[in-house]
Specification:
By secondary structure, the chain is mostly helical. The protein is built from three helices and three strands, in the order αββαβα. It comes from Verrucosispora sioxanthis.
C-alpha cells in the first residue's frame, strides 16, 4: 500500500512531465526544527481532542484558510491527521487536497474547536471547584 499516489507515467518515455525538474531538486527542505516538530505534535494531540468532542455532534473536520490561494479548505479528521503525520515524517507539507464537495456547515475552524474544547474543560473544572474541600 502506498501513501502517495502512484505516477501513471512511471517509465513512460512520453511522460509529459519528464522535462520538469522534480520539486526540491535544487533546494532540499530543511528538516523540521525541534520547535516546529513540537508544534505539529501538539496539533495532533489537539486534533484528537477536537474530534472526540465535535464528531459526535456532527462536525466532520476543520476548515483552514489556505495561505496560497486564499480559499477555505475543508479537511476531514483523518485527512488532516494524515497530513500532519506526513509533515512529521517527511518535513514537508502535502499538496493541499481538501475534502470533495464539503458541506461548510459540518466544518469548524481551529479557533472554534479550541474554544469549544476550552469551554468543555472550564465547565468540567467548575463542577469540581464547587465541591466541598475542592480548594485544598
Amino acid at each position: 500500500m502506498h501513501d502517495d499516489p502512484i505516477d501513471p507515467f512511471t517509465g513512460d518515455p512520453t511522460d509529459p512531465a519528464a522535462d520538469l525538474e522534480a520539486p526540491g531538486d535544487d533546494a532540499p527542505l530543511d528538516p523540521l526544527t525541534d520547535v516546529e516538530r513540537q508544534d505539529v505534535l501538539e496539533d495532533l494531540a489537539d486534533l484528537e481532542i477536537y474530534q472526540a468532542l465535535l464528531a459526535p455532534i456532527g462536525v466532520r473536520g476543520l476548515v483552514i484558510e489556505c495561505e496560497d490561494c486564499r480559499e477555505p479548505h475543508y479537511f476531514d479528521w483523518d485527512l488532516l491527521r494524515g497530513n500532519l503525520r506526513h509533515l512529521l515524517s517527511s518535513g514537508r507539507p502535502r499538496v493541499h487536497e481538501p475534502a470533495y464537495d464539503p458541506d461548510p456547515d459540518h466544518y469548524v475552524t481551529w479557533d472554534y474547536a479550541r474554544g469549544y474544547a476550552d469551554g468543555v474543560h472550564d465547565t468540567l473544572s467548575e463542577g469540581t471547584e464547587d465541591e466541598p474541600g475542592a480548594d485544598r
